[in-house]
Amino acid sequence: MMRFVVTGTDTGIGKTIFSAALAGATGAPYWKPIQAGLDDETDSAVVARLANVAILPETYRLNTPASPHIAAEIDGITIDLAALTPPPGNLIVEGAGGALVPVTRTTLYADLFARWQIPAIVCARTALGTINHSLLTIEALRARGVPIHGIAFLGDAVEDSEAIIAAIGGVRRLGRLPIVDPLTPENLAAAFKANFDLANFR
Questions:
Q1: pLDDT tops 90 at residue 184
Q2: Catalytic residue check, 193
Q3: Which residues pair with 26 in a beta bridge?
Q4: Of 15, 32, 125, 176, which residue is the catalytic one?
Q5: Which of 11, 15, 63, 71 could form a Cys-Cys staple with 36, CB 3.0–4.6 A?
Q6: Containing structural domain, residue 194
Q7: What is the predicted pLDDT for the residue at 1?
Q8: What CA–CA distances, in Å, run from 158 to 6, 130, 154, 190?
Q9: What is the pTM (predicted TM-score) of this model?
């Protein structure tokens, strides 16, 4: 079954682009449970533009581009964790920011992932600082009992960083998605096919 949570080491590192590529390659529907920030193109809209897959509606659409816990408070919305239950079947779920971003003032995304028990794919940029950020993310997920399917790198190749993260973190190295420019559905699909083995996602 193609059922994964896509999380990351930070915000703005390319999780949504990777999610679009993975959804497009597998045909699995995409779901962003909480969208915080509506002024620019939403993550669901990005995936819809880049991958020909079903897009499930967000459970919460918050106006402020911030951590969901504070964005919801600003909007006067109470996030009901019970409403954030993933539907059954094939699914690509994308979190927000890093794995320890607060959903509410008492629950982090990693806590939700632990409840769901859906294998997580950690997205990590390859730029300076990624070893520390990646290993901390892996430890935080493991401490909560989140199953980790593997790690996907984003950006230019940095072989030693990628290798040592996978080795010390004890995670499967799934591949690396390079910067895709121009970012079109065709170019993204080609880049994913050239750098990832779909057999590693089954």
A1: yes
A2: no
A3: none
A4: 32
A5: 71
A6: 3-201
A7: 84
A8: 21, 10, 10, 21
A9: 0.97
The string of pLDDT tens digits covering residues 97-123 is 899 999 999 999 999 999 999 999 999
Number of domains observed in the structure of the chain: 1
Burial class of 51 by CB neighbour count within 10 A (0 to 12, 13 to 18, 19+): buried
Give kind and range of the element (H or E) at residue 147: none
| The pLDDT value given to residue 202 | 85
CATH number at 129 reads 3.40.50.300
Place of tokens 């699909």: 189
Q: What is the DSSP string of 62-131?
A: ESSSS-HHHHHHHHT----GGG-PPPSSSEEEE-SSSTT-BSSSS-BHHHHHHHHTPPEEEEEE-STTHH
- In one-letter notation, the amino acid at residue 199 is A
Amino acid at 84: L
C-alpha span between 180 and 140 (Å, rounded): 30
Distances (CA, A) of 34 to 47, 115, 190: 15, 17, 29
Q: How far apart are CA 135 and CA 168, in angstroms?
A: 8
